[in-house]
Design goal:
The protein is of the alpha+beta class. The protein folds into two domains: 132 residues, Phosphorylase Kinase, domain 1 (2-Layer Sandwich), CATH 3.30.200.20; 190 residues, Alpha-Beta Complex (Aminoglycoside 3'-phosphotransferase, Chain: A, domain 2), CATH 3.90.1200.10. It has nine helices and nine strands. Strand 1 and strand 2 form a beta hairpin. The radius of gyration is 20 Å and the shape is globular. The termini are far apart. This is Aminoglycoside phosphotransferase family protein. One of its GO terms (molecular function) is transferase activity.
Length: 343
Amino acid sequence: MAAPAAARRPAEVTASAGEGARSPGHAPGSEPGRPNAPGPGRGAGRARALALRVAARYGVPADEVVLAPAQGAASVVHLLGRDLVLKAALADAPGPAADLCKEAAVIPHVRDLGVPTPELLELGEPAGAAPYLVLRRAPGVSPGEEPGPRLHRSLGRALARLHGAAASPPAAVPADAQEDPRPGVERLAADGYLSAGLARWLIGWFGALAARLPAAPPRPVLIHGDVSAGNLLAEPGTGELTALLDWGDAALADPAVEFAKVPPRAVPEVLAGYLGEGGGEERRQWLDRVLWHHLGWALARLPTPPEPRLAHWSAQPGNRLLELLRCYAEGPDAGWMRSQRLP
């Protein structure tokens, strides 16, 4: 059902990302998560009132307005009947509002590329209040914490379409320049998180890996920025990807950064869909780049506070590092990690 004409905004929305925009590379300690519901003080009452007003404009009865089972760290999501979703930015910080406006700019662009994502119906920017989106509900179900190989491969194909697009991304999308993790290793040692000997070994290991990376930086592309399981929908029968959700972390970056939000054990399957029949040296180079970002983010997360409210796979400080160890120890494709010889 369409919004009233006066309430609708054009699909080609542009907005500045603003200072508070999340960066998938620069702040791994603040990665988005999936608490079960907005807690006290997170604007739940205001979000409910907004949801009821918007639902009435779309002809949705109040008793069909419910909180979505999964919530984001930067917004409150309501289901409006069977067909619509309302996503309202939290009003207590500028970052969520900027991310929501960026998402409104990105969604029409990626849909034009053929990337499966929910249709944007409205960007609302009420005076003195946080912005909101009205989206058409996409088909599919949550894949749970451990998506299967068919979903991973179809995700890889969707990412290849996104990253390979020739069209320029919206102006609202910020650039995300990744930093060399080696100075961070030195800081961890100075602050007592690593021994001096381990830090020297790790810096040498990063140096050996750096020698295997492309001499010229990869061309920045539009990335989704958070392709963890909570942002995927799957077709129940086939397990294929039906939608990529939440474009608030979209950025211009090295495409290998995209795979740093995939658990290491799943990286080979996603890359198989991404590269198609490509393999051999090209696959090895991709795995080197992905490992560089995974390990850099894992180390940056170590000294940060715990996040007991968040549930995504890399939320807690030690999760990403231990997932790398888990992949090395038991993953059927762990050879891609064991091939990185120590210096």
